[in-house]
Structures are given as C-alpha cells and as structure tokens.
Specification:
InterPro entries: Glyas_Bleomycin-R_OHBP_Dase, Glyoxalase_6
Structural class: alpha/beta
Distance between the termini: 29 Å
Largest sheet: 4 strands, mixed
CATH class of the largest domain: Alpha Beta
Protein name: Glyoxalase-like domain-containing protein
Strand content: 15-25%
Radius of gyration: 14 Å
Helix content: 10-25%
Organism: Angustibacter aerolatus
Order of helices and strands: EHEEEEHEEE
CATH topology of the largest domain: 2,3-Dihydroxybiphenyl 1,2-Dioxygenase, domain 1
Number of helices: 2
Strand order of the largest sheet: 1-4-3-2
Shape: globular
Number of strands: 8
C-alpha cells in the first residue's frame, strides 16, 4: 500500500507508533510492515496536501478484543491524532486525523 505524505518520516513515525508495525530497512522511502508479514505500507513524498478530511489512503484502527475504543482514541491523541467531526453523525466509530490531516476511523471491538 502506498501512502503519499508531505513529510514521509513524520507519517511513518506516527503510523509506526499507532500500529506497532516495524520499519523495513533498506528501502528508498519509509516503509512499515506488520511483524506477522503481509502487505507493506510505504510513505511516498508528495507536494499536495490532502483535500479536506478526505484521506489519500483510508485506514481503520480496531483495538484488540477487550481493549476499549475510548482507550485507543486516548492513546492515539497522545501520538498527535485528533478527533474530527466530518458529519458522520451518531456512529459506532470515531473519526480522527493523523498528523497530516488524513482521516481514519477507530472501530469498536466485536465484544464491545
């Protein structure tokens, strides 16, 4: 997956802390990968800021079973994410923005 970013290092640092995915060494651009394998998330430089709350790439964050959604939102705020109202109304997820203003959702766990 490719994520255009004004500052790829800042975005990669945020998503590394948010997801726990590890930095892949030896790549031209900052790249993260799940410790279990799977796809990589590569942060490519761009000069174009995101347009409003519409993200360049939409990621969802789901807390682990038993972890409260509110706790995950609080943790992400400490990493510089911000809750945002994009007109979503009364829904079961929380919309937030990453350091560059890209919207993402924090979902509830199935047992919550």
């Amino acid at each position: 997956m490719v994520h255009p970013a004004l500052d790829p290092e800042v975005e990669a640092a945020f998503w590394h802390a948010a997801s726990g995915w590890q930095r892949v060494e030896g790549r031209e651009f900052p790249t993260l990968r799940s410790p279990d394998g799977g796809p990589c998330l590569e942060f490519l430089p761009t000069d174009e800021p995101p347009e409003g709350p519409r993200p360049r790439l939409h990621l969802d964050v789901r807390p682990l079973p038993g972890d409260p959604q509110a706790g995950e939102v609080e943790r992400l705020v400490t990493l510089e994410a911000q809750p945002v109202d994009i007109g979503q109304g009364d829904v079961q997820w929380v919309v937030m923005t990453d350091p560059e203003g890209n919207a993402f959702c924090v979902l509830r766990t199935p047992d919550a």
